[in-house]
Amino acid sequence: MIRHSLSILLLLCFGLCIKASESIATVPDSSLCCIAAADSVITTTSPGRAAPDSTALEADSTATRLWWRDAIKQRRFNIGDTTIAYPKFLNFCVNVYRWGNKFLNSYDTAYVKSVGKKWKIQLRYNGMIGTYHGKVRDGDLQYFINSRLVNYAGLRVQFLIFGLEYMPDIDNLLSGRPIKHRATRFSINCNRLFAELYYIKNVGTVSIRRFGDYNNGRSFKLSFDGMDRRVLGFDAFYIFNHQHYAHSAAYGISKLQLRSAGSFILGIQYSKQECEFDTSLLPDGLKPYTPQIANNLNYLMKDYAINIGYGYNWVFHRNWLFNITATPSLGLKRIKSPNDSDYSYHIATNFRGRISLVHNRNHFYYGLYGTINGNWFNSTKYLLYVNVFDINAIAGFRF
């Protein structure tokens, strides 16, 4: 699924890979008018004089245009400049880019404004907490586990609509211990389309807060080192009101929202999530309460779902923006339960919610993000509900 989806995205964005401007003007280029006027002057002939040969005119027109290599050398290159000449194949690529840019990045300038910069460098902090509610039906075992606060810090680099970020676990990094937690994301963020490929790994100590009849079923807190969670996912969605609503103003910081607006969102989601609980590492006091069927609590979930939701940008003050976005999803879930060798198929019901607060100040920007992701696992023998809460603080610079 990821491979096919990425192939489609790469084809759509083929022309976007050329170094280019970030947005496209919504009015005709004045240079085109000048060229058209010049052509009309050239093709006007005096009485009794033969009209110039069209091939000669074309050759002369090409000769007067700036060659693309020379434009780069002279630092005058702009992919939107129609007076720059290219060879045939490169000219085709440029035309694809211009079409793609117009299709993906058109907007109403009364609501949205381009930041006018190609590069963004962003420092990022992320604090994450995960909760796991589980039940083993046959053994009548219920358990509740939550992770400690995992602190990530890293860097995000964005060029035009493409962004890449990497964040390791700074607690282990600063203490010299092996890095057990990391998050990597690659995203494409434009007015009409958002897509993200991500990988998250969390391995290490969590807290068991409830485990069967231990402590008479009441809440307690014991450390557990046998938790391992890995997620590989891909999300993409289409923004219907892309002329007025800029999702990238709230999350990609590549546009500025001038007036409040919202939009319905429709997209696709794929995720592969592995949750492993090594019960051999359980505290000795809990092992007598572990039924035989729960000796292996390893879950594998693959979701293929459709997202539908709504996002809203509220411009409550100049250069300030608040966003809220909710995208529940419904689809197919492939589950491999503990002690089962084959997959079973179920309905996937997941949820993702986001909020952001962003302040822009000239070329600098600052923000706070919050995200909640909910995934439901339900089979005849086992139940698992995973919630992951993230809070992010960012500071960045455009150039």
Polypeptide structure, described:
It is a single chain. By secondary structure, the chain is an alpha+beta fold. The chain folds into two domains: 2-13 and 28-110, no CATH class; 114-398, Lipocalin (Beta Barrel). The protein is 17% helix and 51% strand. It has seven helices and 17 strands. The chain has helices at residues 2-12, 30-42, 54-64, 68-73, 88-105, 170-175, 247-250, and strands at residues 66-67, 84-85, 112-114, 119-136, 141-147, 150-159, 162-168, 181-189, 193-211, 222-239, 255-257, 261-277, 297-317, 320-336, 344-361, 364-378, 382-398. Strands 4, 5, 6, 7, 8, 9, 10, 12, 13, 14, 15, 16 and 17 form a 13-stranded antiparallel β-sheet that branches. It has a two-stranded parallel ribbon with strand order 1-2. Strands 3-11 form a two-stranded antiparallel sheet. Strand 4 (119-136) and strand 5 form a beta hairpin. The two termini are 36 Å apart. The relative contact order is 0.13. The model is unreliable at 1-62 (pLDDT under 50).
